[in-house]
Each structure stands twice: as C-alpha cells, then as structure tokens.
Write a structure and sequence with these properties.
By secondary structure, this protein is mostly helical. The chain has a domain at 22-101: Orthogonal Bundle (Tetracycline Repressor, domain 2), CATH 1.10.357.10. Helix content is 47%, strand content 8%. It is built from four helices and three strands. It has helices at 22-37, 44-50, 55-62, 65-101, and strands spanning 116-119, 122-126, 129-130. The protein has a three-stranded antiparallel beta sheet with strand order 1-2-3, with no helix packed on it.
C-alpha cells in the first residue's frame, strides 16, 4: 500500500483510482479541467499531475493538447448521444404503452366522388358516408 504525505496547502480534487487506465484518467482529468478553466488556461503538466502520470504518456496517447481536447469533446458527444437515444427509447416505450391502454380517436375525412373506400377487405366508406368500421391500427413514429 502506498501512503502519500498530506499537506496543509490547498489540495486538488483526488484523481481517479490508480486501477483505471492511464488514458482514461487523463481523459477524465482533462475533461474536468477544460470545463473548469478552458482550453488555454489548462496546461498539459497540470492534467498529467492530477492524473498521476507524466507528460510523455499524454503525448503518447494524443500527440498534442488539441488532440486531447478533441478526444474529450468526442467522448462528451458520444455520452450525449447515448443519453438522447435512451430518452427517445423511453419516450417511445411510454407512447406504445399509453397507446395500447387508451383508445385513440381517428380523424375521418369525407371524400367526394368516391363510392367505396375498402381497407383490408372492410368497407370503410360507402357513398361518401363512413360505415363506422375501423380496420387496421393507428401508426406512430413511422412504425409499420
């Protein structure tokens, strides 16, 4: 077990545990610092110090600070995309559940000049008047 000396000086937030990969620690620390201080005010030395690694490892993984910034941006974008997809799936599930349990009204528009409208073999309209039949199902969000 490694014991680190404590100091009375102002301390930074602790980095991720040593068990996480160096690359992951660098990404996490860089994300926090870029968010807090911005790109230009964040140094590679500060990132590596907080990630408990050296500057060479940062340059090994990304070659430049700009590439690290882009990697952080891509990672955030992927996380947002996954969250968005999860929300869409949740909303669609709610719509499906709600649609099945609550009867929905259908919009029926009269057609002039059409003698019969037949859907799935059922007469829907006869001589311009709706017969009351409602074959098929209401489709939502392009589902067939």
């Amino acid at each position: 077990m490694v014991v680190r000396p404590t100091s009375l000086k102002k301390t930074e937030p602790p980095a991720e545990p040593e068990s996480s990969s160096t690359k992951e620690r660098l990404l996490q620390v860089a994300q926090a610092l870029f968010a807090q201080k911005g790109f230009h005010a964040t140094s590679t030395r500060e990132i590596t110090r907080r990630a408990n690694t050296n500057v060479a490892s940062l340059y090994f993984h990304w070659r430049t600070k700009e590439n690290l910034y882009l990697a952080v941006y891509r990672r955030l974008f992927q996380q947002l995309t996954q969250m968005r997809q999860g929300m869409i799936e949740l909303l669609e599930e709610g719509l499906r559940t709600h649609s099945m349990s609550v009867p929905r009204r259908r919009l029926v528009m009269p057609a002039q000049g059409v003698e019969y409208t037949i859907v799935n073999g059922t007469v829907l309209c006869e001589h311009g008047k709706h017969t009351g039949a409602l074959p098929g199902q209401v489709l939502r969000s392009g589902a067939a």
